[in-house]
Structure formats: structure tokens, C-alpha cells
TrEMBL record:
Domain of life of the organism encoding this protein: Eukaryota
Domain LRAT stretches: 1-71, 69-143
Name of protein: LRAT domain-containing protein
GO-annotated cellular components: cytoplasm
BP term (GO), one: N-acylphosphatidylethanolamine metabolic process
Keywords, alphabetical: Hydrolase, Lipid metabolism, Membrane, Transferase, Transmembrane, Transmembrane helix
Coiled-coil residue spans: none
Transmembrane segments: 147-167
A GO term for molecular function: phospholipase A2 activity
Protein family according to the UniProt entry: Belongs to the H-rev107 family.
Keyword Transcription regulation applies: no
Source species: Phyllostomus discolor
Length: 177
């Protein structure tokens, strides 16, 4: 339940810091709008989960108008549990490019990170970066690389189309003169 409580009371004597870390990336909403939105939330029940709707999502939605979270908690769960009813395959797709670390080293590193909070960013530190860092000691994501390639290809096709259009328009204009 959303309540209006002083931050010092919520912190319960612990040290706290207000960190508006996304101000460099996102434009904060006007203070009046933030306060108005927060006021409307008082008394409402908000369900939180660690991955898609946590307290950081809540406060960034109030401050910036969109939910964002730059943190993740490492959990230890069976892959079948995480995937649920979705189909999955394990693809050690970089084994031909990188030498995988020994399984006991991978497990040791992963076990050491369980329950630790880590930064999360879709472009530079997502789950594929994490898995590749554990397996190969190299942080990389084909999802990101492929997204950039797709955007580049799309922009290239649009540029060629625009150039073709402009050249044909000039030819038509010259013929009409």
C-alpha cells in the first residue's frame, strides 16, 4: 500500500542517499507533476516483483514518467523454473570463438554472485552479457550487436530510398522545364 511517510522514517535510522542517477539520461517531470502523481498513488495497493515492477520502477515512473530500473538481483534457480512453459535451448554459441572456463569455475563465480545486486542495462550489461562473462570471461551480447546491425541496415535502406526519390524528382523537374 502506498503511504505518505518521511524518508527518514522509512530508512529507520539507516544511512540513505537520494540518487537521481537518471537525470543525465532522462528529463525529470516538473516537481508539481511528480507530487501530484505521488499524491494520487497514496492508499493504492502496488504489487512489486524483482524483475519488472520493483520500487525503483515505481519511483522512476513518478520522476521521469516511465518505469526504469538499473539494478538486478542475481538469483539461483533451475532453468526450467525460470523458463516456465516457454521453450528454451542452451546455446554455447561462442565456444568456437572463446575457450569456455572450466565448469567448476563457472559455477563458483555464479554461486559467489547469488543474492548480489548488479547493475542492469539493456545495452551494456544484460543477461546475455552476464552469461557470457561467466562462461567465457568476456562480456558481450549478440542481441545488442544484432539490434545495432538491424538499425544500421534499416537506416541504410531508408537513405538509399531517399536518395533515389530525390534524384528521380530532380529528373522529373528538369524534364518539365
Amino acid at each position: 500500500m502506498v503511504q505518505k511517510v518521511l524518508l527518514t522514517h522509512v530508512a529507520g535510522g539507516c544511512t540513505y542517499l537520494v540518487n537521481n542517477k537518471l537525470d543525465k539520461k532522462l528529463k525529470p517531470l516538473p516537481v508539481e507533476q511528480i507530487l501530484s502523481s505521488a499524491q494520487r498513488m497514496i492508499g493504492k495497493k502496488v504489487e512489486f516483483d524483482i524483475s519488472s515492477n520493483n520500487c525503483e520502477h515505481f519511483v522512476t515512473k513518478l520522476r521521469y514518467g516511465e518505469p526504469r530500473c538499473l539494478q538486478a538481483i542475481v538469483k539461483k534457480e533451475l532453468l526450467s523454473v525460470v523458463a516456465g512453459t516457454d521453450k528454451y535451448t542452451v546455446k554455447n554459441k561462442h565456444d568456437d570463438e572463446y575457450t569456455p572456463l572450466p565448469p567448476n569455475k563457472i559455477v563458483q563465480q555464479a554461486e559467489h554472485l547469488v543474492e548480489k545486486e548488479m547493475s542492469y542495462d539493456i545495452w551494456t550489461c544484460n543477461c546475455e552479457h552476464f552469461a557470457n562473462q561467466l562462461r567465457y570471461g568476456v562480456s558481450r551480447s549478440n542481441q545488442v550487436t544484432n539490434a545495432f546491425k538491424a538499425v544500421g541496415l534499416t537506416l541504410g535502406v531508408l537513405a538509399v530510398g531517399l536518395i533515389w526519390f530525390l534524384l528521380n524528382r530532380r529528373k522529373r523537374e528538369k524534364r518539365q522545364q
